[in-house]
């Protein structure tokens, strides 16, 4: 299995240029990932850019008017809930961590609205700390390829941590996300254009995976 995983990683590396080496601000990663919940990537990007252009720090968001935050992040969807959440998270960061984002998984998980995927995204993209953010792309593709047989992204994360060498953890998310966005789509995967189709079990799996 490990040999198969390494072949998959090497194949995808040749197709997609990785950006995680240019680390982002941990706070931006945290807030953007919260905004990304239940919405498309392009909507997250628009909302994040508008928000950070006016309120770039935890202090500024914590002290901002909630109605103004809602207007800025409206494109992310569920903006009423998300506005309250990011304001609360910013307030906690300001009061408990001097406006800084902690780099420990357990402390990140204590923040409201932060699950394992969000916390792991912060570790990988904010701090360059090995972790595996298991979003829908990672979960779907890992099952289609037969690397795991899991029912939830959290189960997928734990199984990948057992099977993927730690030195590859940081890049797994970005490689699978890019592959999921361009080739291995949820409903109509472009198997004829996929460089790793020979390693895939998609046609043998039940519909919906």
Q: What are the defining features of this structure?
A:
Endonuclease Iii, domain 2, 2 domains, 209 residues, elongated, Endonuclease III, domain 1
Structure description:
With 209 residues, this protein is mainly alpha-helical. It folds into two domains: 2-18 and 133-204, Orthogonal Bundle (Endonuclease Iii, domain 2), CATH 1.10.1670.10; 26-127, Endonuclease III, domain 1, CATH 1.10.340.30. Helix content is 57%, strand content 0%. It contains eleven helices and no strands. The chain has helices spanning 2-15, 26-35, 41-54, 58-62, 66-72, 79-97, 105-109, 116-127, 136-144, 153-163, 169-182. It is elongated. The two termini are 20 Å apart.
Short description:
Helix content is 57%, strand content 0%. It has 209 residues and is mostly helical.
Helices and strands, with pairings:
Layout lengths: L1 H14 L10 H10 L5 H14 L3 H5 L3 H7 L6 H19 L7 H5 L6 H12 L8 H9 L8 H11 L5 H14 L27
Give the total of domains: 2
What percentage of residues falls in helices of 4 or more residues? 55-70%
State the end-to-end distance: 20 Å
**Which CATH architecture of the largest domain?**
Orthogonal Bundle
**Overall 3D form:** elongated
pLDDT below 50 for ≥5 consecutive residues: which ranges?
A: none
Strand content: under 5%
Could you give the order of the helices and strands? HHHHHHHHHHH
Instruction: Report the radius of gyration as a whole number of Å.
Output: 18 Å
Major β-sheet profile: none
What is the β-strand count? 0
Report the total helices.
11
CATH fold-level topology of the largest domain: Endonuclease III, domain 1
